[in-house]
Specification:
37% of the residues lie in helices and 17% in strands. The chain has twelve helices and twelve strands. Helix 2 packs parallel to helix 5, helix 2 packs antiparallel against helix 6 and helix 6 packs across helix 8. Bound molecules: manganese (II) ion (MN). The site of manganese (II) ion has 6 residues, from loops.
């Protein structure tokens, strides 16, 4: 039986679109994380293997090496940073576009205008707040779920060819879904619902090897990741009197430890283990801005902090954004003073 967040009329309309369309493009948000890649891979895999469609993943940037292996070998994906013309041609040729794990095409950066210009019908499957509903023919959007991967899992179960039986999912799709959900819940630590355990249980029963999923996700990092995380916790973590823990990964530190994209993933969660910390913010220096990750304990809103102070958003207790210079702060050296101000305002 369908869960109450699954709109059966939406399933019917999705199924009709999938039946009618031939050239499908699946996309997700910029700097794709495990949930973005897991859900996008699973859907491309399902469309190709179960529906025999020409389905391709088209992403605005290449995944970090830490999460790249989530895309199963041989599944066709294009990346705008390395193959811009192929991405634009593919979008122009598509008669259906599906966005996963992002609330609108503004989350696809360099591909935003191409997606918005495309006359093809669009489908949204996402778990962030404030979906851009008016751009999509079919919308599955619920924030009360662990991940886009979980939402996609329950959508797929309702489609006639899967018919509620997880064993009918192609094995690489089943594994990608479990992987995506595992990363977005931080291995069942947050945003876990009864439906999340049910999904995990179904997928394990269907043959997904969870030990292998965990080993691939968490036991294959480079040594420097552990060293830079130790360094930032020891030398770089500040805790304000209000209970904001913040760390600033400057260009200097990132270069010194030769940190690659994705290698500080998870670090922002660590300070929440301290009793007096209510919220944790990690700043990572980019060209003219810091990338901002925010996590909060129950009762404190990472989402409001991201929206009000960092041009961002996301989920109640896990959000992200950006901090620009010279618009928000005079330069990178002013970041700490800005965070002290944020602390006083957000954690009053
Ligand atoms: Mn997600």
């Amino acid at each position: 039986m369908a869960l109450d967040f699954i709109d059966i009329d939406g399933i019917r309309r999705l199924d009709a679109l999938l039946e009618r369309c031939t050239t499908l493009t699946v996309t997700t948000h910029t700097h794709p994380d495990g949930d973005a890649l897991g859900s996008a891979s699973a859907f491309v895999c399902y469309l190709r293997e179960c529906r025999k469609k020409d389905a391709v993943g088209v992403l605005c940037d290449s995944p970090a090496a830490t999460v790249r292996p989530i895309i199963p070998d041989g599944l066709p994906f294009l990346f705008h940073d390395t193959d811009p013309q192929a991405c634009l041609d593919r979008i122009a040729a598509s008669d259906l576009v599906i966005l996963l794990d992002g609330n609108g095409f503004s989350r696809t950066e360099g591909l935003q205008s191409a997606f918005e210009a495309s006359p093809a019908p669009k489908v949204l499957i996402d778990h962030h707040l404030n979906p851009e509903r008016e751009r999509f023919e079919v919308v599955f959007s619920t924030p009360d779920i662990s991940s886009a991967s979980e939402l996609l899992y329950y959508v797929l179960l309702e489609l006639p060819d899967i018919g509620g039986d997880a064993r009918r999912l192609p094995a690489p799709a089943a594994r990608a879904l479990l992987t995506g959900m595992t990363t977005d819940t931080n291995n069942f630590a947050n945003s876990v619902y009864p439906s999340t355990f049910r999904m995990a249980s179904d997928l394990l029963a269907a043959g997904v090897d969870r030990d292998a999923v965990l080993a691939d996700l968490y036991n294959r990092y480079r040594e420097n990741r552990v060293r830079v995380m130790g360094y930032l916790q020891y030398e770089g973590m500040h805790i304000t009197p209000e209970g904001l823990a913040y760390m600033v990964a400057t260009r200097d530190i990132l270069d010194r430890f030769e940190v690659e994209d994705g290698e500080t993933e998870g670090l922002v969660n660590v300070p929440l283990s301290i009793e007096r910390v209510k919220m944790s913010i990690l700043l990572k220096q980019d060209r003219d801005h810091f990338r901002v990750s925010i996590r909060s304990k129950k009762g404190w809103s990472a989402q409001q902090c991201a929206t009000r102070w960092f041009h961002g958003g996301g989920h109640e207790n896990a959000s992200g954004g950006k901090l620009f210079w010279p618009d928000d702060i005079a330069g990178p050296a002013e970041a700490a003073a800005y965070l002290e101000k944020v602390s006083k305002e957000c954690l009053r």
